[in-house]
């Protein structure tokens, strides 16, 4: 029993089932609530077609593992309690810092999730799944001194 690999916005995900719905694709990509996102399937070099949430896709078919998701409306995330509008599903910490008007080379990002904090200090190229209302704080990088 193999796994079926598919991509959403160039990020890789796996399914144990060959038949998967649009809703399950968005859930696996952690794009929630699924109703906030439009899912498109790549049909050829130039074309995408929309995928409905309840539509079934057979991942066994050739060349259909490429999906593209985008929010229907701008998503609001918060950096240091300031709202930032974004229209991407995945952003790196550096892209989030830049979107909030910070110089990415002088700061790193922490994601605040309830009582947990996730630091992206050493993982600046991590793709963060963007959802409405995500909260981040920017932290000044200490200048590194070589002794």
Task: Give the tally of structural domains.
Answer: 2
Gyration radius, rounded: 18 Å
Q: Structural class, please?
A: mainly beta
Q: CATH superfamily name of the largest domain?
A: Phosphatidylinositol 3-kinase Catalytic Subunit, Chain A, domain 1
- Name of the top-level CATH class of the largest domain: Alpha Beta
CATH-derived architecture of the largest domain: Roll
Classify the fold: give the CATH topology of the largest domain.
Ubiquitin-like (UB roll)
Mean pLDDT: 89
Q: Roughly how much helix do the residues carry, as a percent range?
A: under 10%
Quaternary structure of the protein: single chain
Strand % is 35-45%
Q: How many helices in DSSP terms?
A: 2
Kindly report how far apart the N and C termini lie. Answer: 55 Å
Q: Any overview of this molecule?
A:
This protein has 2 domains: 4-71, Phosphatidylinositol 3-kinase Catalytic Subunit, Chain A, domain 1 (Ubiquitin-like (UB roll)), CATH 3.10.20.90; 75-140, Ubiquitin-like (UB roll) (Roll). The chain has helices at 22-28, 93-99, and strands spanning 4-8, 11-15, 19-21, 37-42, 48-51, 56-58, 66-71, 75-79, 82-86, 90-91, 107-113, 116-119, 128-129, 135-140. The longest helix has 7 residues, at 22-28. It has 147 residues and is mainly beta. It has a 5-stranded mixed beta sheet, with helices on one face. The protein has a 5-stranded mixed beta sheet with strand order 9-8-14-11-12, covered by helices on one side.
